[in-house]
C-alpha cells in the first residue's frame, strides 16, 4: 500500500529549491517542476522528465501552475522522478563496502559466518584499503601485496583498481518512487537497503541534478557468486528513487553532493530500529569520475541516472547474535539528506509488491492519447 506523501519528505529549503519530478494525474504520468514552492505541470513543454533534462527546459514559467506544494501534498501521488533514463549504479565505491563485499564472497552468502571473517579481514587490510586512492601506484602496490598474501578478491579489484564497477540496476521505467513498496526476493535470507545519492545526467553525461536512491541488495545471492549480481540487484520493486530531483544551480551543486551526509533509519514491525549514515566525503572515487566511467563509450539518447554507492554496511544483529541485519516484511525504510529530502518506502517481497506493468509502450500510448508527442 502506497504511503501518503508528507511535507517532511521535502528538502529543508524546498521553498527556494528547484525540484523536478513526476506525479500521477487523472490523465497519466506527468512531469512537474517545483519552483518558489509552486508545482508546475511541464507536460506541454516536454512529455517526459528525460526530454526536459535533454532540453534543459527548467523554466517553470513555461509550464502550467497547479498550486502550492504544501497545499497539494496530501493529495499528490508521487512517482519515481525519472522515466526514460537508463538506471546505472556504481558499486564498491567506499572502502567499508569493499570489505563487506569481500566478506560476503568468503562467507559464500552465509550470514552466520560473516562475523569471524570480518574481524580477520579488517585486521589484515582495513587500514590500507581506506587510505589508498584507486588507480594509483600505491593502489597497484597494495594489490600486489594482497595477492602475495592470498587475500585478493574481485571486489578489491574494483575498489582500488583503475576501473570502477558500473552495472545496470533495473530496466527503464521500473523504479519505485517515494511512498511505494520496495521488494526483496522471497527466497533471500540475507539482504539490506543501500542508501545512496543518485546523479541525473543528460545524454552527454553531464549531471543536471541529484536525488536519493535505495539500491536494494541481496547479500546472500551476490555472496554465493558475483555472477548472480543481476538476480541480487534487479527484481520487482528493488530500486527506489525520489522524492524529487534537485536541480543544480547557484544554491546546490556537485560540491554539495561531495559533502552530503545520507542518513538511514529502518523501523521494523517488531520494534527493531537500525540507524546508519553514509558520508560522501569518504567516497573513493569522485562523482565526476564515476560519471565519466559510466558514460565511457556508451550512448544514452534519453540520458541516465547513476547511483554513487554507499558507505553503509549493516552489521547490527537483528534476531540471532552474529547474523547481522536482514529485512523483514513491514520494515519502514527512510533515507534522508537535508538538501534532497527523504525517500520513504515500506518493504514487501518482490513477489507481493505491486507488479511493474507500465512500460515504455504503455507510456507512449498514454502520451499519444494526450497529444503530447507532437
UniProtKB/TrEMBL annotation:
InterPro entries: FAH (IPR051121), Fumarylacetoacetase-like_C (IPR011234), Fumarylacetoacetase_C_sf (IPR036663)
Domain of life, source organism: Bacteria
GO biological process: small molecule metabolic process
Domain Fumarylacetoacetase-like C-terminal: start-end pairs: 166-348
Keywords: Hydrolase, Metal-binding
GO molecular function, a single term: metal ion binding
Any Pfam family hit: FAA_hydrolase
Family affiliation: Belongs to the FAH family.
UniProt protein name: Fumarylacetoacetate (FAA) hydrolase family protein
